[in-house]
Structures are given as C-alpha cells and as structure tokens.
Amino acid sequence: MKIRPYQPTDLDILKAITVEAFQGVSIDQGIEQKYGLIQGHDWKWRKAGHVAADADREPTGIFVAELDDKIVGYISTWHDPEAGIGYIPNMAFVPECRGQGMGRKLLEYALAHFRELGLSLAKIETLEQNAVGNHLYTSLGFQEVARQIHFVAPLNSSDSQSSA
C-alpha cells in the first residue's frame, strides 16, 4: 500500500468510498431511519458532504491509500495547534481492502503526522456498533474518555411527537 497526499481530483472517489463504508455506522443514517429524508437529501449526500468539508478545512491533512495506482482508502485529519489536538473525522476503505491492516497503517501514518506537528493528543470518534473501529482504535492506544448520545428533534410541529 502506498500513502500519498490528497489531491482535489480524489474527492469524488473518496466520497464514494465513504458512503459505502459508513453503511450501518453513520449517525445521519440513523436520523434518516427515524425521520426520513431531510430537505430532500439522504444520509449518503450528507456523509459525502462531510468529506468535502474535510477537504475544505485542511486538505494537507488528508492522506490517500493506493494499491496498484488505484485509490482504495483514505484518512482525513485536521489539527488545532493552540489546543495541541489532532482530529480524525473520517477514514474509509473499499470492501476488498478491509481487514488487511491497511486501516492500522493509515492511522499510524496520521498519528506520525500529528507528532511531527508537535501535537499532544489525537482524537477519533466512532459509534458503539462499529466493533472494528472500537477494536482498532484501542489497539493503537486510543482510550475511551466519554460516551455521547445524539438527540434529534423535529422542527416541524406536524413531525413532533408530544410526550408531555
């Protein structure tokens, strides 16, 4: 596996990889299952938008994994130098490259990048149902520090479910 810097021409491929990889482990998918489409857009559109936002925020923090000159995965990062924290919002691989240690290598690459930047901590989040991510992250030294519950409230009164 070769790891290289992100190029803007990679974006559509990274979006497609992300949408496929986050099936079943996306907060936006859970919202859609409960409330349906929002503003005419599905969860896949929103998740792909997250990758575009990563590219807008810190394109030099995205690292692309290739096999035989084909993009097979990526990791996105950004950092807050004042806080000393590096963030990993997204990582995804094509199905045929999962479970082969490539995610570990990409995460190790991102952690080395954060060290080179002089950061103190790296932060990554995952959902409880992402068993692969939970195992991988803890095996690389990440420790759980908190759990979060995502609440969503419909803003259209016809969608509200009163429990008063």
What is this structure, in a nutshell?
The chain has helices spanning 11-21, 27-35, 43-57, 102-116, 131-139, and strands spanning 2-5, 62-67, 70-80, 85-93, 121-124. By secondary structure, the chain is α+β, with helices and mostly antiparallel strands.
Describe it.
InterPro entries: Acyl_CoA_acyltransferase, Bact_Acetyltransf, GNAT_dom. Pfam families: Acetyltransf_1. Keywords: Acyltransferase, Transferase. This is GNAT family N-acetyltransferase. GO terms for molecular function: acyltransferase activity, transferring groups other than amino-acyl groups. With 164 residues, the protein is α+β, with helices and mostly antiparallel strands. The protein has one domain: Aminopeptidase. It is built from five helices and five strands. The chain has a five-stranded mixed β-sheet with strand order 1-2-3-4-5, with helices on both faces. The chain is globular. It starts with a strand and ends in a 25-residue tail after the last helix. The model has no long low-confidence stretch (mean pLDDT 92).
